[in-house]
Amino acid sequence: MIVSIDVETKDDKIYTIPDLGVFSKYPESAIVAYIKGKMTGIEYKYNEAEIVADLMEYIDETYSGHYSQNRFQATEFIIDAGHGDGFCIGNIIKYAQRYGKKNGRNKADLMKIVHYAIMCLHANHYRSTENNTSE
User: Fold this and answer.
1) How far is 113 from 91, CA to CA, in rounded Å?
2) Contacts of 19 by beta carbon, 8 Å cutoff, 6+ apart
3) Radius of gyration (Cα) for the chain, nearest Å?
4) Which of these, 5, 8, 13, 123, has the minimum number of CB atoms within 10 Å of its CB?
5) Which is more confident, 56 or 128?
């Protein structure tokens, strides 16, 4: 359990947030994002901090779930083979079309859409390889 977190804000002040209690179930990065938003005066209108924290929790579960075998996810091999864009965009379309039809307005489908978008961002903008020309 996290006892405290030091948070640096836009004005270069560092705050120590004691005993996070209810936040302890979220990853530290999501907690810091939430706290930074509160400390910098950002008034989120769409529960962005809470949604990002939920998304991080969902993503964390994929690393321990059946999608990850021997510390590798199949998506890694697909991206490395040069098929990441089509795979990720195809899955985004799949889950977007499925949303509202299978199991109603299924939150998990939306989480999958955002997660595949993050993987596509990673493949094209955050991964440093000699084949990646995007900045």
Assistant:
1) 7
2) 3, 4
3) 18
4) 13
5) 56
A 10 A CB-CB count for 2 gives 15
Strand partners, 18: 4
> Residue 134: which pLDDT band, with cuts at 50, 70 and 90?
very low
Residue 118's region, left for phi above 0, alpha for psi from -120 to 50, else beta, is alpha
Contact between residue 43 and residue 58 where contact means Cβ atoms under 8 Å apart: no
Query: What distance in Å separates the CA atoms of residue 82 and residue 63, rounded to the nearest whole number?
Result: 22
What count of Cα atoms within 13 Å lies in the side-chain half-sphere of residue 18?
0
End-to-end CA distance of the chain: 37
What is the per-residue pLDDT across 25-51, written as a single tens digit (0 to 9) for each?
A: 666 666 666 666 666 667 778 888 778
Per the prediction, the chain carries an average pLDDT of 78
Among the ranges given (45-59, 63-77, 83-97), the one the predictor scored with the smallest mean pLDDT = 63-77
Can you give the pTM of this predicted structure?
0.69
Q: What are the two backbone dihedrals, phi and then psi, of residue 46, each rounded to the nearest 5 degrees?
A: -120, 25
